[in-house]
Amino acid sequence: MDTATSLETQIARWRDYVHRHRAIAPADVDEMEDHLRERVADLTATGLDDDEAFLVAVKRLGRLDSVSREFAREHSERLWKQLVLVPDGPDGDGSPAARRELAVVLALAVGAGVAVKLGATFWDETVLLRNVGLLVAPFLAGYLAWKRRLTGRTLGALGAAFVALGVVLNAYPFDPAGSTAALAAVHAPVVLWALVGLAYAGGGWRSADRRMDFVRFTGELAVYLVLIALGSAVLVGLTFGLLGLVGVDLEPVLERWLMPFGVPGALLVAAWLVEAKQEVVENIAPVLTRVFTPLTTVMLVVSFGVLVSAGGLTTVDRELLILLDAVLVLVLALLLYSISARDPLARPGLFDGLQLAMVVAALAVDAVALTAMLTRIAEFGASPNKVAALGLNLLLAVHLVRSGWLTLGFCRRRRGFAALERWHTSYLPVYAVWAAVVVVVFPPVFGFS
Amino acid sequence: MHIDKDLVAASATPLVLGILAEGESYGYAIAKRVADLSGGHMEWTDGMLYPLLHRLERNGLIEASWGRSPAGRRRKHYAITLAGREALAERRAQWEVVSAALTQAWEAVARPVPSGPAAAGGLA
């Protein structure tokens, strides 16, 4: 009995080991296990004990690396992880759960499209622009909430937040030409995205891991959106050309129907793709960060040189601040995505040094421009735009200074990687809070101008 | 006697097709049959049999179906197809030409070592 169980353990261990070879599918392991057991049975019949028989049988199967290579040659597609949109169930039909999910996504995509279309019909352009995120985000959050089976309480809180944001955006007596309305329109999507994040985390928003997952989700979503947009552009361009030949102008249809339905639809489909392929394809956003980190550092160093030597920074106004914010956001995104994909246990290497260099360069550029800006604000007073841009700049600077400091500590092996990760994930909600402040507090403070 | 790797590889397909032409079979039984037929001289790495079977299956020369072993384990059975029989006939003709040419060429010279030519004969 004992020898039988030890044989079973050994076979289980062997299966486990074979499973790690991606070219060998589970069905192949079954097939080879049958072979192994037959061989063991034949060998024990000739007088070997189970252990010896198992050793000989495994040896006769051959070196797993070469067998796996042979499998890979025959089944090269297995080395490419495949995205199965509607995975086959055991009977060869698509599984009902996957079909249901696809149906839910498509229904929500149409729902978001209808919402945007209605908004476009009944609102003028500025009101629509301020509200467009609010028309789409609940559908995306709804999909995630459905997928995560959120509790009634979380759902209620999310719904209340959406409603509150809607009330603020539409009940405030904004001056149509004023900048607080524009600021609210720009910052509302950040608040909305934080709400989507709450739905994504499924109540576990306090967990650093879930937040990092949401960061990954955001990056992949952006990549998918860009790809879908490129594909759609090609498709629409070709259709334009074809219909143009027979004198049909597609432009009104494009504006009135394709855009309102296509863009929200693309967002939901992209979200669904990210969810569906989570474990299927390597993440692409971190790969892009590897490419762009050194390039961004070079760009920053050049900008620093030009800014310092040019001197005349006082002539530029908030455009400078906005550009700077964009640069810092870019640097931060590069940092965040490489951290999201980094093996936390790996030792500090060249790339961590590169990142540190990038952070230092970004902060140097920021310091130069910020001094110029502050003297200018002191001279000419504050406007809502300047305060909003400056506030964001300060938030970003704090974020970067601390992560630069922690990266330095990590590179000098004074600190673990976890400290850096934790800093990033715990700082992220600050942006949502700031955006909420700009949307909710700024307009009354600056008299809705 | 050790048989050259390339020779084993070249003979693997006609050998498997020939065994399956005798009747449906499965991996381990095929491996055992190969050992029997070659008097134990053709040592395959057992694991390599499966990628080969899958290739033949993909090329439509054999068909696979999942069944159960007497002990109740999942077992994949293979059977030769019509295309497989045609391929086998063609391979067989080729091997016969090669074998006949070798035999004639070697008739002229004295046999270098005293071991038997069984493997070459058994492969056709």
Automatic annotation (TrEMBL), chain A:
The chain crosses the membrane at residues 102-122, 128-146, 155-174, 180-201, 221-245, 257-275, 287-308, 320-341, 353-375, 387-408, 428-446. Keywords: Membrane, Transmembrane, Transmembrane helix. The keyword Membrane applies. InterPro entries: Perm_prefix_1. Signal peptide: none annotated. NCBIfam families: perm_prefix_1. This is DUF4153 domain-containing protein. It comes from Isoptericola halotolerans. The lineage of its organism: Bacteria, Bacillati, Actinomycetota, Actinomycetes, Micrococcales.
TrEMBL record, chain B:
It holds the Pfam family PadR. Gene3D superfamilies: Winged helix-like DNA-binding domain superfamily/Winged helix DNA-binding domain (1.10.10.10). Residues 16-90 form the Transcription regulator PadR N-terminal domain. This is PadR family transcriptional regulator.
